[in-house]
């Protein structure tokens, strides 16, 4: 049974950004040879990392949307983790990714609502203070 997945990859920043697509294609052949399809490859480019990974403060980000079986996805993740050029990977089923985004948005909306109500609360004057 095939599912839709989203793969986030952070590559070593020392790689030439023009070579990122070619480097990813080597790994993505696992998907196509097992009958999966690659819908979209979005290369974000070099970005600053939130924290150091392998003593590096930058990485080249890429997001790949694909359809494959669970076994194929596990093999892809295994091969990506073996490569020295790949600093981090995260594979999510598309349904899980959508649910995570929705829950984060709900939390952010809730925080914003709490902040706006906290600002609206004004101190109540007492009769003694008026006199």
UniProtKB/TrEMBL annotation:
Organism per entry: Microbacterium arthrosphaerae
Keywords on record: Ribonucleoprotein, Ribosomal protein, RNA-binding, rRNA-binding
Highest classification ranks of the organism: Bacteria, Bacillati, Actinomycetota, Actinomycetes, Micrococcales
UniProt function note: Binds together with bS18 to 16S ribosomal RNA.
A GO cellular-component term linked to this record: ribosome
Protein family according to the UniProt entry: Belongs to the bacterial ribosomal protein bS6 family.
UniProt key word Transport: no
Region of interest (Disordered), residue spans: 107-131
HAMAP family (alphabetical): Ribosomal_bS6
Protein name, per record: Small ribosomal subunit protein bS6
Gene3D superfamilies cross-referenced by the UniProt entry: 3.30.70.60
A family per Pfam: Ribosomal_S6
Gene: rpsF
Signal peptide feature range: none
């Amino acid at each position: 049974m095939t599912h839709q997945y989203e793969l986030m990859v952070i590559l070593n920043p020392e790689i030439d950004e023009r070579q990122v697509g070619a480097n990813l294609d080597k790994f993505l052949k696992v998907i196509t040879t097992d009958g999966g399809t690659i819908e979209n490859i979005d290369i974000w480019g070099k970005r600053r990392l939130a924290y150091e990974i392998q003593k590096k403060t930058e990485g080249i980000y890429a997001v790949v949307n694909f359809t494959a079986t669970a076994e194929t996805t596990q093999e892809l993740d295994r091969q990506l983790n073996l490569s020295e050029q790949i600093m981090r990977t995260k594979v999510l089923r598309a349904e899980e990714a959508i649910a995570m985004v929705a829950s984060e948005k709900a939390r952010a909306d809730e925080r914003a609502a709490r902040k706006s109500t906290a600002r609206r609360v004004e101190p109540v004057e007492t009769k003694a203070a008026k006199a």
